[in-house]
# Entry
Amino acid sequence: MNEFDLIATYFRSLTQGRPEAAGLEDDAAVFRIPAGHELVVTSDTLNAGTHFPHGEAPALIAHKALRANLSDLAAMGATPYAYQLCIAFPQKPDENWAQDFTAALLADQDEFGLFCSGGDTSVTQGPLSISITAFGLTPEGKAVRRCGARPNDAIVLTGPVGDAFLGLQMVKGALDDAGSESFLAAYRKPVPRTALAGLLQAHAHAAIDISDGLAADLAHLCHASNLSAHVRLNEIRFSEAAEKLIKRKKVAPMNLITGGDDYELLLAIAPENEKIVLEALSAIGLRPQSIGRFTQGAAEAVFLDDQGMAIPFGQGGYRHF
Ligand code: ADP
Ligand code: MG
# Structure
């Protein structure tokens, strides 16, 4: 199977006949942005050996690559529209690989409502690399930034944190917890919160996804909004399965708030809207929580222990270098 077969046989199906992609038979895609809207653009790259193990199942790579981008769109309050798919192969992919990879992308396209508008295919001396650029839409001026939080805004989390970290520990063999499929699912097939676009546009002063970990991403939001946040560690709720592990001393809350890969959103919500937002999130089956308030002060996130003392830790989240 050469490059052109791969594109014609597999990747063309990802365009779902959308005219913007011109059947992948032109040099570029052409978009018409609906009147009164803005295009929100984000990119994420996954490299074998760094972001997923060599030999990882193609469906899992596909889900992670697309969903990482969708989570960034979700954090902007944008509705998914299309994406570009760039792949560098260390060797020719076989048919099974291409089939499984394409099927997983198609399933996610159906679930999240977007299509593939094109991409690039190349070979590399390095490891397999998948790079996706996703496009989303928001009504003009409605994109939700990191910088808009205001003093006294509630810090709302759209769900529990740390399950993906626990999933990664299971994959690494560092945590043996039979029956915690939810941890593995949170790590392998996280659900980007794109369904919340309308809610964010209506109510969020600021938002960020917590893919670098709650501690680091709350700090990013504080920095961007030039506000301070004080959060009591013992008031954060984790998933029921994670709470059990905490009780059994298999994991510490600090690990859960600094571990990455969670795709929940962190929102800054005006106090008068806090209740509506929490109720709206619960109504669609999420387990939201309000973990504190933004205040004027040094632009940093402070986590407090049982005695109300600041817990010292560095930048908190995962850093590539
Ligand atoms: P060029 O030589 O101009 O880079 P390509 O052969 O890379 O052209 O691409 C031809 C067409 O196939 C383009 O429409 C491009 O968007 C599409 N394409 C190439 N690789 C991919 C891919 N991995 N996924 C989706 N579309 C792709
Ligand atoms: Mg090309």
